[in-house]
Design a protein that fits this description.
78% helix; Butyryl-CoA Dehydrogenase, subunit A, domain 3; mainly alpha
Length: 155
């Protein structure tokens, strides 16, 4: 396993996930670095690049959740601070992304992995160690929340 190659392939994805949770550059950079340190300290035999990316997404998500749970006062910035790092050329896509960033933590990773990284529900359930029906229920709830938010904005 060549950590340097994995780093170059996956660092942008890992950083985007960290930003999605922490919404500030210094903390996202720290969690990105920690995810790769975890990989160096606990080498994993990856089956594919997809498995490698999923492992890192789950790892950085867990690191971010731990970071958030230990803060006495949670830091939060506006979407405008995060948007340039995650944004696309399409304003509609950026608006949807803003709503995804506002989802509760238990839904963010699922939606990100499914819609932005292209993982199947079966793959996500394996990587997050969730029952597949639980995962689908959470995806449905996340979609409902997103729909409500998007409808409010358009009214």
């Amino acid at each position: 396993m060549d950590i340097e190659q994995i780093y170059h392939r996956q660092v942008d994805t890992v950083y985007r996930v960290a930003m999605m949770y922490l919404k500030n550059r210094p903390d996202a950079e720290d969690m990105t670095q920690q995810a790769f340190i975890n990989l160096m300290n606990k080498p994993v035999a990856f089956e594919s690049e997809s498995h490698e990316r999923a492992w890192l997404i789950v790892t950085v998500s867990n690191l971010c959740k731990n970071q958030l749970s230990h803060w006495y006062k949670k830091k939060r910035t506006d979407f405008e601070d995060v948007a340039p790092l995650l944004s696309s050329e399409d304003p509609q896509t950026d608006h949807v992304l803003e709503q995804v960033l506002n989802l509760p933590n238990e839904y963010k990773t699922i939606i990100y992995m499914y819609y932005y990284e292209g993982y199947s529900t079966r793959e996500i359930s394996q990587y997050l160690e969730l029952n597949e029906s639980t995962l689908r229920s959470r995806m449905q709830k996340a979609r409902e929340l997103l729909k409500l938010e998007l409808e409010e904005v358009h009214e």
